Each structure stands twice: as structure tokens, then as C-alpha cells.
Amino acid sequence: MVPSTETMVGWIEEVFAQGIRRPGYAADDWAERWSAEVFREMGLENVTLDPIEVERWQPLQWSLEVWSEDDPGDVTSIAGYPIPFSADVDALEGELTFWDGEGEVDLAGKLVVSENAMIELPQAAVGPLFASWWYDPLDELDQLIQILPFSAGFSEAMEPSIEAGASAYIGILRGFPVDTDRYYVPYDGRERPIPGLWISSSNGDRLVELIDGGATRARLVLERSLETVGSHNVTATLPGNSDEWIVIGSHHDGPWSSAVEDASGIALVLAQAQYWAQVPREQRPHNLMFLLNGGHMSGGAGLLHFVGTRRDFVENDLVVEIHLEHAASVAENIEGEVVVTDEPEPRWWFTSHIAPLEQAVADAICEHGLKRSFIMPPEGFPPGSTNPPTDAAFFHPHSPIVSFLTAPWYLFDESDTLDKVHRPSLVPLTLATIDIVNAMADHTAASLRGLTYTPPRVEPLSCAEPIPMGPLR
After folding, report:
1. Which residue segments constitute the domains of the chain, with CATH numbers given?
2. What is the pTM of this model?
3. What is the per-residue pLDDT for 463?
């Protein structure tokens, strides 16, 4: 029997209650120890905390003041939030300028103000342009436009200003349904050479108005700590009916207290562990490893370590790696208020181009009514990428992957609170994952890799009943 919705929500609530769970923070250290203890209580074997190194970034104090050279006594303070992994500075004073990002310009020594607009993604385009197959039983996707939690520049938003010689970057966050500056991007763990500050859309309007009115001077203070500290990957195992392995994972850290990103993923992995611990060994199709990796918000440090130190295992003994991230509700701005709806965010299942693996995912989606689901390619989304935008990126192309992900606009914002978890998804996602694992019973690591195909493929995947869905390209 799978854990109930109430049990999984209880796990999420317990993790969320610890506070901000960034790599190296006390709440993340707690999550490691707690999840390891839960694995032990479930009867799992070889429960291990595997040491890794992460970059712990902590903002301490910051401020932004602007004024006109003609009236230096009339100083305006603009609220904001430090950009993760940007440089610290005691008090940087200089010329303030707005740059639209176009053309080659010399911004040497200037404090650059620029806009960072989130992408609006029409779901009607996702299927035909990217997906192998999609499940839309209520014919909803044509009407959906999803606000993604990142801009076209994503983690590289500061880089054009850095390359143009700017002394600081001030990014205006556009497109969110809320007026926010609490945006934990980038999270690649890579220190930038200049300080940066996110400001909300309303404060961006205010700052642009001040610049247009002649405010050409600014002073930026940004104090933060950045140090390399220890964290852990948490692993546990159950023996199965073969010598090969299936890994089921998610990450235990997050940008804030982060209920969806990824306390919900922790709960989905614990649900798999609890279910399979009750199943007799001979009914587990392969050995099972449960992985809660650290350092997701520090450039994927945990998975770089896992794959780097277990390359032979990943390439030869791993039948499939299944990653479960983000059981998310749609949240909309309705008449100025953010309202969490009963609907799930569009679901992306990044899956290796292996016919029986894709079929297993499609069958599980159909069986458990996981509407708004897309089977996505392991590369090519976003365009030009060679890996999926998920933690499974570190396993592809070394092993077959199934990587579940949603991307709500609040994913990196402090408004990722308990009400955002799509509770009706928790049990169906758990059951679907069990089905995918069971579907691998007749496959080996070698045989599955031997079935890799190169798109396009002609035969369709389909549910038993006639419903609107996309064909394979």
C-alpha cells in the first residue's frame, strides 16, 4: 500500500517547518539527518550520508540609494535582494544607467539597471515543438500560458553587463504574478565578479522613473558570506530480483523553505521507499537505490559527485534513473491577489528516447489520470540544450532517465509555501512511478540501452481510451 496523501503532506510540512534549506544551512543539514533516519525506520539497508562540498551563500546586509548630481541631498532608497553568488562590496558609488541589453556598449564602471522578464510559454507550442507525446484528456492545453520561473538569460542574466564592464548589476524582475525581489537565481554556485541586486517590478518602475528624471548617481552596499562547506547525498537501498539497479531520487535542499522545491520531491522519494520496503524482494524487479542528493542549489554538486564517483555503475549497472521534482499547483493573480487553484502545473516527463521506457511512462500517465503531461526529450529543451533542465541532466546520456518536473513561476521565490503543493498529485505520481519501475522487470541495463532510437518515430503511444493527445513526431 502506498502512503496516503496525509502522510506525504506531513513529511512536506515537517521539512518546510525547518526554515530556509539552502546548501549548508542548518535546515538542510537537518533534512539530511531526518531523511536518513526515516529510511532506517522504513527498514532500508545501507543508509549512507555521502560527503560532498557545496558553496554556502548567505546575504547579510544590503542597500541601494540613488540621487541626482544636481541635488545630492535628495537621496532615495530602493529596496531589493542580493543576487545569489554575486560579489560583495562595502559601498560602491558610481554612475547609474539603464541598459536594454541591445548592441555593444561600454558600461565600464557603471551601475547598470536592466530588465529580466520571465518567459511566458504557450502550452499549445510545447507539444508540437518539443514533446514526443502528451496527455490532455480535457483538451486544456491550447488555452494555457505558463509563466516560467526564469528569463531567456536564466542564470546568465548578469553576464552581458559583466562583459560590458559594469561595476554592478541591478535586475528588474518582470512578469511574475507577484511583486517580488526574493528570487534565488542563479544557483550554480559560481561567484560573479561584480555585485548584483534583484528589485521588484514596482521598484523597477520607480527606479526607471528616477533615472528618467535625472538620477544619475547610486550607492550600492552588499555584504554576504560565501564559503565552501560540507553537505551530503543521502542514499539507501533495497535488494531486488536482479543484480542491476534502478535509482529513484530527488534533492533535499531548496532556495527558501520551499514546499514544492523540493520538499515535495523528498516526500515522493520517501513514498517510493515506504512502498517498496513492504514488497517482497522477489517482487522488486531490480535492486533499488533511493537518493536524496544535496547541493542542487550549488551547481548540482551532489549529483556531480554521485555520477563522477560511480561512473561505471551509472553506465553499466543502472537500468534507469527516475528523478521526481515538484508536485506543483497553478497559482494565479486574480484581481491583485495570488490564488492557488485546484489545477496542477503542466507536467514534464523528460524521458530517454527508448521505446519501451517511453511507453511505460505514457501507460503510467494514462492509468493514473495525470493530465497536462508531456513526454519531453532528454535534450533540446530549452532549445540547444544537451541535457534536460532537471537533476537527471547529470545522468544523461550515461544512463536511461525518466525525470518528472514542473516549473511553476514561484519555484525560486519565497512564496513557494505549503499551499502551493498540489496534494491531489501526490498519490497518483507515486502510483505512476511504481508502474514505471515494474515495467522495467523484463529489461536489463544493456538491453534497454540497445533500444535507443533517434527521433522521429512513427508509431504512436496511446492510452486505452480515445482521448485528445499528441502523436510522436
Report:
1. 5-56+228-470 (3.40.630.10), 59-121+147-226 (3.50.30.30)
2. 0.95
3. 81
